[in-house]
Write a structure and sequence with these properties.
Helix content: 25-40%
CATH class of the largest domain: Alpha Beta
GO molecular function: 4 iron, 4 sulfur cluster binding; iron ion binding; RNA binding; rRNA (uridine-C5-)-methyltransferase activity
Number of strands: 22
Function: Catalyzes the formation of 5-methyl-uridine at position 1939 (m5U1939) in 23S rRNA.
Structural class: alpha/beta
EC number: 2.1.1.190
Strand content: 15-25%
Active site: 412
Organism: Sutterella seckii
CATH topology of the largest domain: Rossmann fold
Shape: globular
CATH superfamily of the largest domain: Vaccinia Virus protein VP39
Strand order of the largest sheet: 7-21-22-20-19-16-17-18
Number of domains: 3
Distance between the termini: 51 Å
Radius of gyration: 24 Å
CATH architecture of the largest domain: 3-Layer(aba) Sandwich
Oligomer: single chain
């Protein structure tokens, strides 16, 4: 067998362009000879020179090498790990943009996405919800690698567009106590026998600052390593958890710490206990404001019955129960349903709540009818799905004659929100009364949003627009919106 030839070195290619706008990942968008280019580190209104990194049939990806005309919105990034070159952290993509401008860009992305994918426009644009810009991240999954060429153990986020771990010593979006743990964690893990068999450390901070570290272990923990972990917990005032396999195997090293983590929703006098591997919103301050807004937008009265889809631990269910007659939370995970039920009992809300485990991605009209009978009618609906959205539920709500008076849809993906709103509006006649963004993840391209829908007159026949959108949905599924934000201009 002949020797494998070395890959040819790529000759750098440079282009100078005027940047038009941002995509959902915080990259500048420009056009070269009619082809879309996504440029890392470029801002709208700037004239830049970029190096082409990748070339695809319909788009290129580049990286800024020189700025000839700088945007007034450009600021100096606070984090030393931020950048666009090799070795930079991939956790934040917008630190070079003035924070209030980040919010304006995200609002534009939401509205553009609703129109370009769903051909819908909200009647009202809600004021954005803000929270802290720094130290807001109460949950994180830190990757661990023992890299001898870099001096030993690294603990942090992945480098941009890479599986490598950034060489981090601080992170200003993590809570200050967690940021300060990055170097001590490196020293701790370096001293463990299983330093090469520990791929990640998950971090969770409760509403009172209580902090848990979940060490993912691929081998049984030796007694010596176990004692070192506990000693680290005592020294740093941390709860130590171990996770030998999947998230369901995570357990506190000290059993008395199993139920100590919690977050508060003070307006509703609700405390939600959670495990560090459970899904909770990373930004506690923003979450409180978001829940308050969602409950207000539902326009509840004490006699109303509410369905909360994708309810998780009851982040919306329990506050809703404080304002409504009865609420049923529906979630795909049996474990989350059990803990949500316990949370309702802990908060004195068991009599006003019920929880069920159902696959909401296969939700059908028979499920909706059965739920209607259980509650004796449904006055309001809250939907808070993962990135995949709630297409099955949207199709049921578009078809049913038993429609709730109002739906509040909380979304972490503008593309699937637009798709689901398109189904509701074009097929079911629902009106998009309002929509707006919530800056859950400052300095990132993540767009969290909320929409309010009310039933309107259902079309007699499916429109050409609805047919076209449905074909597009079938062809594209849950793909990211970024290409739609460029190709249609």
């Amino acid at each position: 067998m002949g020797r494998r030839s070395k890959p040819k070195e790529r000759t750098p290619e440079y282009f100078t362009v005027d940047v038009e706008r941002l995509d959902q990942e915080g990259r500048g968008i420009a056009h070269v000879d009619g082809k879309v280019v996504f440029i890392q580190g470029a801002l709208p209104g700037e004239r830049v020179t970029y190096e082409r990194l990748r070339s695809k049939t319909s788009f290129d990806i580049g990286r800024v090498t020189e700025i000839h005309k700088e945007s007034v919105l450009r600021v100096q990034p606070r984090c030393p790990n931020f950048g666009i070159g090799p070795g930079s952290c991939g956790g934040c993509t917008m630190q070079h943009i003035e924070p209030s401008a980040q919010v304006a860009f995200k609002e534009r992305i939401l509205l553009d996405t609703l129109w370009r994918i769903g051909k819908v426009k909200p009647e009202e644009v809600l004021m954005p919800i803000y929270g802290p810009y720094w130290g807001y991240r109460h949950r994180a999954r830190l990757t661990v690698r023992n890299v001898l060429k870099k001096g030993g153990v690294l603990v942090g986020f992945h480098e941009k567009s890479s599986s490598y771990v950034a060489d981090m010593h601080e992170c200003p979006v993590l809570t200050p106590n967690v940021s300060a743990l990055l170097d001590p964690l490196r020293v701790l893990i370096e001293d463990l026998d299983m330093r090469d068999r520990m791929p990640q450390v998950e971090v969770a901070v409760g509403g009172d600052g209580r902090t848990a570290l979940v060490f993912r272990t691929l081998d049984p923990v030796t007694p010596e390593d176990h004692e070192k972990l506990l000693a680290f917990g005592r020294e740093k005032n941390l709860d130590i958890w171990l996770q030998p396999k999947g998230p369901e195997t995570a357990h506190a090293a000290l059993p008395e710490n199993e139920t100590k983590l919690g977050l508060e929703l003070s307006e509703f006098n609700v405390r939600i206990t959670f495990k560090p591997t459970d899904f909770t919103q990373v930004n506690h301050a923003l979450n409180e404001t978001m829940v308050s807004r969602a409950v207000r937008l539902l326009e509840l009265t004490p006699d109303m019955k509410v369905a909360d889809f994708f309810c998780g631990l009851g982040n919306f269910t329990l506050p809703i129960a404080r304002r409504a007659k009865r609420v049923i939370g529906i979630e795909g995970s049996e474990g989350l349903v059990a803990r949500a039920r316990q949370g309702a009992a802990d908060n004195g809300l068991a009599a006003k709540t019920a929880f069920r485990a159902r696959n909401l991605f296969t939700w059908c009209e028979a499920d909706w009818e059965e739920l209607q009978k259980t509650l004796g009618g449904i006055d309001r609906v809250l939907i808070d799905p993962p990135r995949e959205g709630a297409l099955a539920l949207a199709r049921v709500l578009a078809k049913t004659d038993k429609r709730p008076g109002r739906v509040v849809y909380v979304s972490c993906n503008p593309a699937t929100l637009a798709r689901d709103c398109a189904v509701l509006h074009h097929e079911g006649g629902w009106k998009i009364r309002a929509a707006g963004i919530m800056n859950m993840f400052p300095h990132t391209g993540h767009v969290e949003s909320i929409a309010v829908l009310e039933p309107g007159e259902r079309p007699v026949e499916k429109s050409d627009e609805a047919e076209a959108i449905e074909r597009r949905i079938a062809a594209e599924g849950d793909d990211n919106v970024k290409m739609h934000l460029s190709e249609e201009n």
